[in-house]
Amino acid sequence: MRKNSVKNTRINGEVQRVLAEIIRAGIKDPRIAPMTSVVSVEVAPDLKTCKARISVLGDEKAQAETLEGLRSAEGYIRNQLARTINLRNTPQITFIMDQSIAYGVNMSKLIDEVMEKERADKEESAEEVETAEHDENN
Question: In the CATH scheme, what is the code of domain 1-98?
């Protein structure tokens, strides 16, 4: 895979910012979850295609409905993108569901559970030592 040029990186960032704004404020489709975020955008160097990775906070049903709503509003989104960003070509957008945020939240929760269990085990073993020392002294 080719390394992105500075220009392509700037275009990716700008398209991501505008796309997030359009999704947040411009689309009135009830299928699109309110907690939808654009994680990353990859615009092809020829500006013909664009992969937008979307993350939705919610269950699988909300994610599927949001993806369906975004795909049905693709023409409107592309039109708004063309009006906002002056590019030679307005890219054809492909929405891809990204699970990385949900995965990170889940891993963080698992780590917290392990740390809590470890802390409880340490407290329990400290109480056992204290009880054993108290029994020795008596």
Answer: 3.30.300.20
